[in-house]
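Running this now, will post back.
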Amino acid sequence: MDDIQVESSCADLSIEKDRLTNKLIKRLVENGIVVLVEEFSGAYEVIIYSSTKSSLSDYIPVLQNFGFNVESEFSYVLKKGKTEIFARKYYIAPDSNSYLGESKTNVEALIEMVLRKKSLNTNLNALAVKADLSPQDLGLLNALLTYENQLLAEQSEQSLNATIVKYYEVAKAFVEYFYAKFKPDVKNRKEWLAQKEEVISQHIKVVKDITDDKILNVLKDILYATIRTNFFERGNLFTENALALKVRVKDLSVHLKGIQPRYETFVYHNSFVGTHLRRTKVSRGGLRWSDRELDYRNEIKSLMQAQRSKNSVIIPSGAKGGFFIKETPLSKERYKEIYQTFIHALLDVVDNYEDGKVVVKNSVVYDSPDPYFVVAADKGTSAMSDVANEISIERNFWLGDAFASGGSKGFNHKDMGITAKGSIKATERFFIEKGVNIYEKSIKVVGIGSPAGDVFGNGIQLSEKFALVGAVSSRDIFIDPKPDVAKAFKERQRLFDNNLGWQDYDPTLISEGGGLFKKSDKTIPVSAKMKELFLIKKDVVNGEELTRAIIGAKVDLLFNGGVGTYVRGNDESDAAIGDKPNESVRVNASDIKAYAVCEGGNLGLTQTARVDYAKKGGKISADSIDNSAGVHTSDYEVNLKIILNALVAKG
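Update: finished.
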């Protein structure tokens, strides 16, 4: 290494020659970053070698999350032939490095992973120093704390992390308990678990702060209620593969609001988080791509409740799953990779059938055999059933292509329009009660959804007599105060057939006083026709105000064929509902003036809103009634495939 040169007086060339071994340089070439922690005059220094230039702001925030108080920093460049090595040296103050000697290896590895975007840059990383935890251990704790936050939604991620760092001895005991519980080939497992439980109990007993005590006890509960995991069966967790934790929710002593699942599989990855909730071991329901980072579990739990009602006549109970993706922007290819990773993680903790016998998947389990696991398409995953079934077949899962309903070898719900047909049929009875045939007499309709959507696009075309005077989708607003019903029907069909949105509607077909707008528009002139139709008094409104006016219009039918909760109970708070994207356009049940409401989509109204609306004379069923036809169809598909696959296997 004699050919190494240093371009700075702040670096000792002889020391650098000793550090920069061929092995280290090879690592640097392969990874782009190498981190060393070295003792220096009774203190420590962190040296970061990089193959590319960096700035002070690239590294300081990372080191601060390790709890380091950086006293000084030096940067310099080393040269070996034509190769340049960019080095930064940080001197760590004595008050923040008392544990560093014992945890040197884990700290080096974790800093490297954070800088290479292979691990998260959070304040939880201080546990690598204080508790000598490995990157995998910290990934586990990150997952557990993220799940806790979804269960309670009471603390910020930063606050939860700060508590567990503060009580680092408990954190280390939690990890050791997890290893004792699930690591294969552990001798005297019961004794070891009892010992770790006692250690955890003693540590928590001395915690004086009530909030800290609750955070730690809930985390302990989650560990005790976890009955399966793929932690020891999957490599490259959190970066390539996702961690799966199967939890028996009824074993959690913490009070959880509302109906809860019996089994939950929580999935954690650096790029996404997800969950799957089941009321019983034989339960069915779709997987959705959620946009609710802070409370996706609450969204999915509410949908599981609706699924429970829909499934009651076909199988014991309902299920629902979903995931939130942290990455932006997101390509189609990357989305597919994330979906595949999610499916693999879910199947990692599910058993299989081989030769008519249940084969238990995991090496350490704390529940009875569990081979029944079926999913379906939902919001954002309508094209993913084939992907899921490919994984099922590849893994030799006993259900084969019956694992995910709605694929190319199953019933296409959009082509069939089955959910829409069921929802309109359920609502038809309200009009029969008042002597109106909705297929012969024109009725005035406002809607929630896109003309290309499975439910709305199909449903609004089920009668040529529907006079659609206004509609809102996730981004757009459509208004046609006095539509030519025949022409409008034909134009909507064109949009549906070509997968187009409201902004593609032919403006020459829109009646006087109508138009195409955006929900994000700051100013929208209100025509006389709009004022009359939607009871608006102002001359100018914004997109959110107009959306609320459309939803509350005095019409015959409010048809919800979209995604989101648009109506709350009269005394219900938005915080209790979640669904932040629709908070600004949500209305009270008392604002709904339509004669009847059809919920082709899930949770357009909260259950309290349905009751409040019905009490004032509104005609409405539960969403589980209106959109149950699609669930029935999926059930028939799965059952038929199970039978047919078994017959094919027998020859």
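The chain has a mean pLDDT of 91. More later if anyone needs it.
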